[in-house]
Structure of Zinc-binding dehydrogenase:
Amino acid sequence: MKAVVYEENGQIVLTDRPMPEILDERDAIVQVTLTTICSSDIHVKHGAVPRAVPGTILGHEFVGRVVETGSAVKKIKPGDRVAVNVETFCGECFFCKRGFVNNCTDEHGGWALGCRIDGGQAGYARIPFADNGLTVIPDNVTDEQALFNGDILSTGYWAAKIGEIRPADTVAVIGAGPTGLCTMLCARLYTPARIIAIDTDEYRLNLAKEKGLADITLVPGREDIEGKIRELTDGRGADTVFEVAGGKDTFQTAWKIARPNAVVVIVAMYEEVQTLPLPDMYGKNLVFKTGGVDGSYCQEIMDLTACGKLDAGFLITHRCRLDEIMEAYEVFENKKDHVIKYAVTP
Ligand SMILES: [Zn+2]
Ligand SMILES: [Zn+2]
């Protein structure tokens, strides 16, 4: 089968790999029907993910059909249409029992797919702990609507949940890329008074506004972000800030635009070390929460998608076949052609 493989720093290739096989009784084999490229794949490509293992098939955001299950798999059956959770988790360790599946202590726990074990930019993929890592897609939800369930939508959902948003709050989201847009989509579930989207890309800001995800959009460099947000909040600052950009100054912007006692959720995956200037923020009494996502809510997200309350399908701006994916990487990495997300068919 064709697969995208991470070789070494900066090298990814589309090549032939053998079909995956069941290795553990809790595994399932999924025929990938739709997959995508995530910015985390680009971080792996840049060698910015130290735990990524060269030789691994990339891809951790995909949907498919179950073709085979191990003898201990109970919930999932061959023939099921499923969305795949970015995180594999045992469900039994200290962290899993508390819902912190990102830190599952199993050797394949946390973000392993498409990083430490073969992922889904391929015709087929092996999913460990299939009963935990697969969510059945109801008939009224399309593959495109379910594609982001286990990764960027899970991330937005988790971020919004830990953001402690209260009705009528002011929420600021830095970064209107795919994950930023998902964060806005999920923040809406908590009925804030307003969502302020901040990005240098006006096309993405317009999309956020057009889709009803953002009420106010601000462009750094052109507008005084801190001043504008204070103006909108009687001088206080935002009640919750989500930093989803991971840019040069965006971490500093995040704590500066937060009001005293705000929650600042750091969703972004940085490629460089950030500075926490504690003397400057003394007395602001901020609460910082950091990623990565605990992908514990895939079923809730699927239920909300099935009843029309959470649909991230609009993020798909580009479609291609797996044999065209190297070109798609080029477009996605360089944000060409106003790309938000690709849907790639193996
Ligand atoms: Zn991802
Ligand atoms: Zn665990």
Q: What stands out?
A: The first helix runs from residue 39 to 45. The chain is about 25% helix and 25% strand.
